[in-house]
């Protein structure tokens, strides 16, 4: 590809991660040509080209079945904190100067020559996340960089954070209100996917960034994340997001325009946690019994019960609240994973076959049988449940139908 773009270089994350001996996910390329010329040169070289980002200076070329974004060198003309008006340039340093952090401003030629205009290689080796140039200027250009800072701090930072960056971010907190909810949600999930985001989240609390985007219910977020890590919970961004808030995670996710599936997961975790909470004494004592676990699995999705167990264990640990020990929680999760999920064996057609007319009465009867089935530990089979249904029907001429 670079042969078709003389003077082109790999830029950004691919160079950074290669220098850090980390897996390289996506390769981005920049070239000192206008986007239309880049597209023409790549097409002439036999590559399939998609011009979906042409207005922003980017085209996508497909190389060996993999998409590679190729972008014209740019300089900012006007910025407003969310969008930028750019012009094409042939000046590599000018293009690098508009990037956020020094570790992202590196570029590499096909021959292996590295260009590092702002000390990014040294910062990468030192575990230092530093803005290119003046931090306040970079943040004024794009307010999202305040959140991006913490994502890169979580993945690449070591030791004390850059004081100039932290001071500028603290001053920029009021501007975060101008960010779109979608951009905040996307950046937050990427941060929470880091191997250990607790230190970065603690910085977000300290600087006022976290309460600015999540509200006061984020008190103790870093403490909860450290507890999740200590108990060996999965590195799941949604489980971690749930732990950022003392309550109201689903409502916060809705405000941030999370997907319906993501919000539903948080709602289901809350409901599962509500059902699990009163069973904590039994969990601590080595229970609960199989009947109680079957009732849980009949009412709540297995994965959400597991989420709830991790969540409750972490919160107990974070605040030193009395509850089951780690071994007891581990046993509970193992039993939940191993136990088959019970399925209520009756359908509406079973009631219709016994002569129950369609309508509200049918629903009340099925609900009553299901309540009986639950009370018995979800073990009654189809014939037993149909017998109970016939029993509840009673004398159709005089007996009142159960209210369910």
TrEMBL record:
<dbReference type="InterPro" id="IPR050264">
    <property type="entry name" value="Bact_CCA-adding_enz_type3_sf"/>
</dbReference>
<dbReference type="GO" id="GO:0008033">
    <property type="term" value="P:tRNA processing"/>
</dbReference>
<dbReference type="Pfam" id="PF01743">
    <property type="entry name" value="PolyA_pol"/>
</dbReference>
<dbReference type="GO" id="GO:0000049">
    <property type="term" value="F:tRNA binding"/>
</dbReference>
<keyword id="KW-0460">Magnesium</keyword>
<dbReference type="GO" id="GO:0000166">
    <property type="term" value="F:nucleotide binding"/>
</dbReference>
<keyword id="KW-0819">tRNA processing</keyword>
<dbReference type="InterPro" id="IPR002646">
    <property type="entry name" value="PolA_pol_head_dom"/>
</dbReference>
<dbReference type="InterPro" id="IPR032828">
    <property type="entry name" value="PolyA_RNA-bd"/>
</dbReference>
<keyword id="KW-0694">RNA-binding</keyword>
<feature type="domain" description="tRNA nucleotidyltransferase/poly(A) polymerase RNA and SrmB- binding">
    <location>
        <begin position="162"/>
        <end position="214"/>
    </location>
</feature>
<dbReference type="GO" id="GO:0016779">
    <property type="term" value="F:nucleotidyltransferase activity"/>
</dbReference>
<protein>
    <submittedName>
        <fullName>CCA tRNA nucleotidyltransferase</fullName>
    </submittedName>
</protein>
<dbReference type="InterPro" id="IPR043519">
    <property type="entry name" value="NT_sf"/>
</dbReference>
<keyword id="KW-0479">Metal-binding</keyword>
<keyword id="KW-0548">Nucleotidyltransferase</keyword>
<dbReference type="GO" id="GO:0046872">
    <property type="term" value="F:metal ion binding"/>
</dbReference>
<feature type="domain" description="Poly A polymerase head">
    <location>
        <begin position="10"/>
        <end position="130"/>
    </location>
</feature>
<dbReference type="Pfam" id="PF12627">
    <property type="entry name" value="PolyA_pol_RNAbd"/>
</dbReference>
<comment type="similarity">
    <text>Belongs to the tRNA nucleotidyltransferase/poly(A) polymerase family.</text>
</comment>
<keyword id="KW-0808">Transferase</keyword>
<keyword id="KW-0547">Nucleotide-binding</keyword>
